[in-house]
Amino acid sequence: MYGLKLDWMETPEAPYYTLEDYTGPEARWCPGCGDFAVLTAAQRLCRDEQLAPEKTVFVSGIGCSSRFPHYMKTYGFHGLHGRALPVACGIRARRPDLNIFVATGDGDCCSIGSAHWIHAVRYNMRMVVMMFDNNVYGLTKNQTSPTSPEGLRTYTHPRGAPIEGMDPLQVSLAVRGVSFIAQTVDFNPQHLLATLTAAYHHPGFAFVRILQRCPHYTPRAFAPLQENPSMMSLLVHPDGIDGGESMTRLFPNRIEHDPSDLRGARVIAEAEQGIPVGLLYKNDSVPRYDHASASGLSATREDRVKLLEQQLDWFRI
Amino acid sequence: MEKKLMKGCEAIGEAAICAGARLFFGYPITPQNEIPEYLSSRMPQVGGTFVQAESEVAASNMLYGASGAGKRVITSSSSPGISLMGEALSYMAGAELPAVIVSIMRAGPGLGGILPSQSDYFQATKGGGHGDYRVMVLAPETVQEAVDHTIKAFDYADKYRNPVIILADGILGQMMEPVTFPEPVRPEDLPEKPWATTGAKGRERNIVNSLYLNPDVLEERNWQLVKKYEAMREDVEFDTYHLDDEVDVMIVAYGTVARIARTAVDTMREQGMRVGLFRPVTVYPFPSDALAEAADKAGAVLTSELSTGQMLEDVKAAIAGKRPVEFFGRVGGNLMAPEEIVEQVTALMERQGRSVA
After folding, report:
1. CATH number of the CATH domain containing B298
2. How many CB atoms lie within 10 A of CB A9?
3. Do A124 and A177 form a contact (C-beta atoms < 8 A)?
4. What is the mean pLDDT of chain A?
5. Domain range holding B344?
6. Residue B36 contacts A where some CB pair is shorter than 8 Å
7. Would you say B302 and B250 are in contact if contact means Cβ atoms under 8 Å apart?
8. Dihedral through CA A129, CA A135, CA A137, CA A138, nearest 10?
């Protein structure tokens, strides 16, 4: 069946999917882990968009958040450390019909998978990337991650992380071919869902950095943001992410930002103060590698015979 | 020095410092995190360097670079991470650079599990990377031996200008046992490294390289390397237990399994069964000659490993069909109980028509 269009199957009635249709076995993360919020948001997104479970795949690498596919009752691919994006690209390269979601973390994506990440942004294959950023390696128990802030004490840097953490937004926005970059927080379910929904509808590589609480190893990483929301800046624009009216109350600081403005997005990402929440950049017209890689799928039988003959003509003696 | 109670991983870390290693490069992976974690606090105390790299590929290439500069260098990882280090391992062997790599084996293949295993025997002894190369592989069975092996590994690495692997299963990495450490090596006692890239003042420049485009040159070089790998046989090590006299069954096991087998041998000896244990300590070079000699005095051989049968191939090659060689393995992170080995040996003796006392 691989690579074939499956649309020939007749369904007597379109089924209606409920949350239960996407709910896998009981999720096992630490109590209070932000991953639970993202799991709920993803299941709600699937329900709201009525995504057929058999047409939906969650791909992950290695890390706490990479247990995600186990907890979704869809197809899943628990991949290799750092390789979630190449695995997802491999799927997308040949399956334009699937809904592809990637669960990856700051260790998986920004450290061992950093080269893949840059190229995945450049390939701009259609998928939703949920990058869970908790500033630490949780699964291997408290080692420094590439986004750990300078000075964070971990088991591999007992005197504190020696250098500044990297900013995944700045890195992604610097890659030519970037087409969708957003940032959200796990402790605002509405904004989280609205962001993932916008990412799902984006025709290309939609990268969402989710600031994710790790109550066990980095309890203070994002607690200040919860305690003092004025440390964040909500990006607002008619083309941006609409989290609903309650956002006005939750985010006192707002920045008017047109998501088609790449330069403006970079300025926001680089700003010393005001952690941006919302859509930084979106461009629907960036070329997609998956269009090229799956182009052969539309060839008819006649086309294929003709091309085969042309190919074999090269070897004529 | 007084005894300390330490986890295998921590003890290996301290042993590296004792041996004069001042550079560690690594990346988190269970079940060996205690090595980088221990060295992250210890290295700065001795003027050394600890770097958490962005991946095992990076860590092993940092090792490659630092080794080329002539320093005693060490990294550690576990199964999937060692796979990623295969590239640098091959290049270091090709460029003839010393380095110590600690491989704390977990269950595979793929992501497998984080429980102990010995399923990376092939990876360590038969390659791991590409090309005709070998690395010396030491397989400790106690935390104390892991310490001794780590210190020896640096000497072997320098002696042969070649990477050396400490091959330990996850039990050894995580288990606490009493250990003592020898006096630390004094920097002035470390061997000279005239090949190192230390700045070409007053001498020809040294180049770290494994590239030889001329097939004749490369062929000659490969045969030169083989001579070196064969010379490693002079440092072959093994251990025997109750093999002085003839036995009905000789168990062959290494690492933690050898300890389990030892208990099984004691039980069987108490019952009057004629059973002994042969334990390879260096698994490359493999103690083939000693094993073949020991097998001459045994009715049959039982190889036991935490794998589906990897060292088994070396055992069979050494014994070359002279004695029946059977296998008993547990995998997936499971261990065998001594009683299971007793059962296996008893069954083997019955199949061989030997009386079970």
Report:
1. 3.40.50.920
2. 5
3. yes
4. 95
5. 237-351
6. yes
7. yes
8. -90
B28 vs A143: CB contact, 8 Å cut-off? Answer: yes
Whether A311 is in a domain gets the answer no
Q: Is residue A226 part of a domain?
A: yes
If interface means Cβ-Cβ distance under 8 Å, which residues of chain A face chain B? 62, 78, 80-82, 107, 111-112, 114, 137, 139-141, 143-144, 146, 155-159
Cβ-based contacts of A155 with chain B (< 8 Å): 33, 37, 40
Domain at A244, CATH number: 3.40.50.970
- Phi and psi, residue A170, nearest 5°: -60, -45
The tokens for A26 are: 């009981």
Residues contacting residue B206 through CB under 8 Å, at least 6 positions apart: B194, B195, B196, B197, B198, B200
Q: What is the pLDDT of residue A245?
A: 85
Q: What is the pTM of this model?
A: 0.94
Confidence (pLDDT) at A14: 79
Nearest CA in chain A to B81: A81
User: Is B357 domain-assigned?
Assistant: no
Strand partners, A208: A130, A182
Query: Cβ separation of B52 and A80 shorter than 8 Å?
Result: no
Tens of pLDDT, residue by residue over A147-182, are: 999 999 999 999 999 999 999 999 999 999 999 999
> For position B79, which CATH number holds?
3.40.50.970
Q: How many domains does chain A have?
A: 1
- How many structural domains are present in chain B? 2
Range of the domain at A156: 17-287
Strand pairing partners for A245? none
Instruction: Say if residue B212 is in the same domain as residue B326.
Output: no
Domain assignment present for residue A7? The answer is: no
